[in-house]
Amino acid sequence: MYETVQFIHSWWAYLVLIMLLIASFNAIIGFAANKEYSATNFRIALFTLIVSHIQFLIGIILYFAAPYFKMWAEEGMGGVMADSTLRLYNVEHPLMMLIAIALITIGYSKHKKKLTSRPKFKMLAIFYGIALVVVLSRIPWAAWL
Prior knowledge:
Helices cover 87% and strands 0% of the residues. The protein starts with a helix and ends with a helix. It is mainly alpha-helical. It has one domain (2-144). The chain crosses the membrane at residues 12-32, 44-66, 86-109, 121-144. Keywords: Membrane, Transmembrane, Transmembrane helix.
């Protein structure tokens, strides 16, 4: 089961990263060019929200199924925090991805409350852009590529 969930989590991450890049740049361009917010922009933001939440749910399943999770019981907090690999997989990656999901969700919710195009794009650009930086900072690149 672990290998299957890990495979899905790894490949779905490409979709999340692509959508987050598209949504962030779409919002930045829309804001900078003072474009009208359209149904296509809404769909891009919504699809990014959906795929990122699905990825997070897959990640939660993977977290508890992974062999790294068992290290909490074997090594304890001090052992996990002392080992950079265990710390990445057990603490840093899950925490930062949770923060990224929260940023995406907050940005999406805030942008819906705005009445005009420029503030909508601004909210999406800020929150999705920060979420993109957070995601890129904690991807385990050595294991992923």
